[in-house]
Amino acid sequence: MANKDFISRYNQLSGYLWLLIAVVSFLAISYKIITEGASTWLAYYVIPIIALLMYGVKKWMMKRMQRHLQEMASQQKENSK
Fold this sequence. Notes:
By secondary structure, the chain is an all-alpha fold.
């Protein structure tokens, strides 16, 4: 059971890591655009977009896995009767 708790905590932290990467990279790129100009740094906005997509995929997969585990538990419960 402790292993399951570790995995759940890891999944949550890794999801928030992608969100943190998106925010920090957005702020850093915005700062660089303000100080140096948009001609070079504008293309780097792809990084926070990809990080947000990774966050969304991570959340979606976590919900999907949770539903799958619940379905497996209910099937096992039905089979044991």
